[in-house]
Amino acid sequence: MTPTVVHRAVLEAAQPYEFALSVRALEGFAPMAGEHRVAGGVVRRAFAHPDFTKAAAGAALVAEVGEAESGGVRLAVFAESALTFGEATAVERTVSEWLGLRDDLRGFHAVADADPAMAPLLRVARGLHQVRFPSLAEATVYFTLTQRSTQWFAGARRRRMAADLGPSLVVDDVVYRAFPALEVVAALPDERLLAYTGNPQRATRVREVAAGVAQLGERWLRAAPYCDVRQALLALPGVGTFTAEALLLRGLGRADEVPLEMRQFRLAAEQLYGTPAPSPADLRARYGPHIGWWSYVTRTALTWTQAPVPTPV
Fold it and tell me: Nearest CA to 57 among 161, 159, 180, 157?
């Protein structure tokens, strides 16, 4: 059956928002390289069918997103069969989460506008919302694979899993592949996962973490208090501080905390503020629950601007 557009909608975005900045961020999002196509001002990528049974049988859909005149995002969904109202709503929610459309950055901007070092970044990134992993499953597996490995290997292994195990859909002669659900990954024997993990220990870890996150449930992970979710993730075998906080920020869009002590965040702070940079404690005190947005906007926009490093006072 030839896929057709089975659903259209305009997704609202919390303002300020610029779709062009989402596209720019997507093109620089290394873990998802090659997973979407950008042409003519629109982006296409695959998602698993919202009906788990159909997705497990290989059904996928392709979401096409572009700028809407209203300031939000226009959505067209390609599929091989019609979607129910509930399925269409689920797709809209998934795409909105992927592009961070509902992220309210007003509190972050209020603090950042009073931070002189942020001015050059905000000139190029005001209206940027956080582009996230398209699914919690993808984020969970990717960040588990990065443990004692490199981002390059983790990305390559994640892509192999999607190619072999994920549902797919062909639109305009292009094959789009989605990532398998957490439950699918958790059900795989370690011998099967070994083809994607490189060693038996990592295979066991991927399976256990996928099973643990699936059992917690995405709805609860998105809605429960941040501290409760962080504690629950840290209690899972194979999940440490970096994995838990990376999942919270890049998988779930929860910006309350960031491991600022890690090298990549220290370097970003030094590039922005000069040396010595504010300490993690100082940054947390200034940005509070918006520290995740500070880290995302800073690390993303620093690659977009050649803002001079300020001279230490």
Answer: 180
Separation CA 2–CA 298 (nearest Å): 43
Alpha-carbon distances of 92 from 60, 74, 76, 77, rounded to whole Å: 15, 10, 10, 9
- For residues 170 and 3, the answer to whether their CB atoms sit within 8 Å is yes
Tell me which CATH code domain 4-103 carries. Answer: 3.30.310
Q: How many residues does the chain have?
A: 313
Percent of the chain with pLDDT over 90: 83
Residues 107, 88: Cα–Cα separation, whole Å: 31
- Whether 88 contacts 78, CB under 8 Å: no
The residues facing 171 across adjacent strands are: 174
List helix spans (H) across the chain.
Answer: 19-27, 52-56, 85-99, 106-112, 119-125, 136-145, 151-165, 182-186, 190-197, 200-216, 218-223, 226-234, 241-246, 263-273, 280-287, 291-301
Distance CA 205, CA 241 (A): 15
pLDDT digits (tens, 9 = 90+) for 134-151: 999 999 999 999 888 788
3-state secondary structure of 312: coil
Angle between the 190-197 and 151-165 helix axes, to the nearest 10 degrees? 130
What's the rounded mean pLDDT across residues 236-261?
Answer: 92
* CA-atom Rg of the chain in angstroms: 20
Task: Name the residue ranges covered by the structural domains of the chain.
Answer: 4-103
Q: Are 8 and 82 in contact (CB under 8 A)?
A: no
The three-state DSSP-derived secondary structure of 116-175 is HHHHHHHHHHCCCCCCCCCCHHHHHHHHHHCCCCCHHHHHHHHHHHHHHHCCEEEECCEE
